[in-house]
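FAQ

Q: What does a record look like?
A: Structure on top, sequence underneath. For example:
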């Protein structure tokens, strides 16, 4: 399985998205700017397969498999059930479980609340058993997400991707031991509430992402965002934190490395201690 490479990292994006014609070109472009690892957000079984193919061609592609709330909303309970079985079998080939979570925006949800909650609970349980960090997609479902995380998330580490909330909401996730990942929207001058939140997130819990091809910073066309825009995200976060671009990108990489490999090294040392 591919591992985090030396250099900067995009903590969340979708290079296996069918809208991207030439993911290899985007990888090369990002590498020329010092970005060498790319943690994917999984959507559903078709996307996991595309990730695996891409990961064989590009060593910086870090696969993550999960059932995205969009996918859950578009499929029946039976289809979700069999996809969860497949996920349990394939999860050992991924570095993280996700995206998983809840999205209750009416145009996404279409009365799939109960199915989304059931799949979210099952995936948290799977992440705990498989010792994988989770990638959380939580939109307009904060109360329910907090309830599910408190019931099923004990011992599960992970990141809230595309965080755009307030400082109190950041504190609520931090209290649950989660990392917060911010992307293109932080570059918008009008999102002062998010800038205030970024100010209070400790540097050792902050990650930087692009979510490309979505979540573009201002000036980039929607649906055409690329991993190279990570530098714009880093510049804005650096400005808010009073640090340099390199400092925030180095820290984001260090944080992701700990998140991805913490359990592994814990298991490794546990094995070592039982095998002197
Ligand atoms: Zn995503």
């Amino acid at each position: 399985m591919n591992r985090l490479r030396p250099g900067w990292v995009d903590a969340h994006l979708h290079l296996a998205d069918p809208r991207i014609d030439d993911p290899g070109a985007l990888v090369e472009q990002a590498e020329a700017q010092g970005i060498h690892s790319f943690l994917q957000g999984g959507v559903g079984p078709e996307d996991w397969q595309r990730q695996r193919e891409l990961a064989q061609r590009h060593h910086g592609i870090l696969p993550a498999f999960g059932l995205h709330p969009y996918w859950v909303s578009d499929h029946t309970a039976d289809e979700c059930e069999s996809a969860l079985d497949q996920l349990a079998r394939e999860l050992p080939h991924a570095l993280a479980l996700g995206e998983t979570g809840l999205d209750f925006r009416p145009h996404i949800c279409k009365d799939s609340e109960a199915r989304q909650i059931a799949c979210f609970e099952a995936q948290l349980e799977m992440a705990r058993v498989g010792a994988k960090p989770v990638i959380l997609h939580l939109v307009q479902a904060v109360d329910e997400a907090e309830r599910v995380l408190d019931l099923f998330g004990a011992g599960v580490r992970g990141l809230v991707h595309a965080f755009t909330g307030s400082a109190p909401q950041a504190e609520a996730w931090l209290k649950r031991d989660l990392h917060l990942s911010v992307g293109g929207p932080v570059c918008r001058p009008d999102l002062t509430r998010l800038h205030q939140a970024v100010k209070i997130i400790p540097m050792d819990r902050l990650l930087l992402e692009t979510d490309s091809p979505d979540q573009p910073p201002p000036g980039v066309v929607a649906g055409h965002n690329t991993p190279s825009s990570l530098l714009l995200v880093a510049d804005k976060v650096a400005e808010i934190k009073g640090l340099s671009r390199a400092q925030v990108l180095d820290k984001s990489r260090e944080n992701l490395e700990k998140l991805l490999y913490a359990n592994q090294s814990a298991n490794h040392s546990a094995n070592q201690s039982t095998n002197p």
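Q: Is there anything notable about this one?
A: The longest strand covers residues 96-103.
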